[in-house]
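Ops channel
N.P.: pipeline sanity check, posting one input/output pair.
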């Protein structure tokens, strides 16, 4: 992804969970502050200043020297700064590295994530799905950078097969698979659920299946509940967590 390739952000979103690198988080910040009609242009004053790290409306909080994580005080300061009006651009951006946020630090951001000012964008970036707690992830639009995850997402059919196999093994197998499920594009979740319905029906017809009828009924019930989650715009991480927890 170059500085001129767009993440295609949701115009109504104010918080983003970017699965990607710091460089991609900078590019996303440039896109959000870009002053051109086609964003990001990579050439306007806003883009250039963000990419050079000198834009007054793009904040990148960092830990104190010798520390791996942001102090709770520093997180609160950054959250408070989000309410300041922009200096040069039409918006402000605050960018956090997920692995630099403790659980307490993430909780300190919840109010801002729930009711962000109209002029602010919050970016939380990282390469591990487990870096952010569920209550934070559920309040963010999900984006994926190509440098870490490539151009393609996991295939629903392959994930459905792995889910059934993991359910047969149980325990840790499902827990590990939950991370892969979180990488599934939300648009592909209906296809995954349909594939799971088909495979559960196949297990019910298979006399050699290790699943009892009651177990299969419970698995199917979980799939249907996840389908309802989609209607209420619940994020993929929550759906993944429910599938793996209920099937475990």
């Amino acid at each position: 992804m170059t500085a001129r390739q767009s993440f295609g952000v949701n115009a109504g979103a104010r918080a983003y969970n970017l699965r990607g690198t710091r460089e991609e988080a900078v590019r996303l910040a440039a896109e959000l502050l870009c002053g051109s009609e086609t964003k990001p242009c990579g050439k306007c004053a806003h883009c250039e200043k963000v990419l050079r790290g000198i834009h007054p409306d793009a904040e990148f909080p960092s830990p104190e020297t010798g520390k791996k994580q942001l102090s709770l005080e520093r997180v609160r300061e950054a959250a408070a700064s989000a309410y300041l009006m922009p200096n040069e651009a039409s918006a402000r951006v605050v960018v956090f590295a997920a692995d630099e946020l403790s659980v307490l630090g993430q909780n300190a951001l919840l109010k801002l994530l729930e009711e962000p000012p109209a002029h602010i964008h919050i970016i939380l970036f990282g390469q591990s799905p487990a870096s952010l707690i569920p209550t934070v992830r559920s309040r963010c639009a999900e984006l994926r950078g190509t440098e870490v995850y490539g151009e393609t997402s996991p295939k629903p059919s392959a994930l459905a097969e792995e889910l059934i196999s993991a359910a047969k093994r149980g325990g840790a197998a499902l827990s590990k698979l939950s991370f892969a499920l979180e990488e599934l594009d939300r648009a592909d979740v209906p296809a995954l659920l349909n594939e799971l319905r088909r495979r559960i029906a196949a297990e019910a017809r298979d006399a050699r299946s290790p699943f009892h009828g009651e177990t299969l009924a419970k698995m199917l019930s979980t799939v249907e509940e996840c389908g309802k989650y989609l209607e209420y715009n619940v994020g993929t991480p929550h759906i993944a967590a429910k599938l793996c927890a209920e099937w475990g």
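N.P.: looks fine end to end. Residues 147-151 have pLDDT under 50 and may be disordered.
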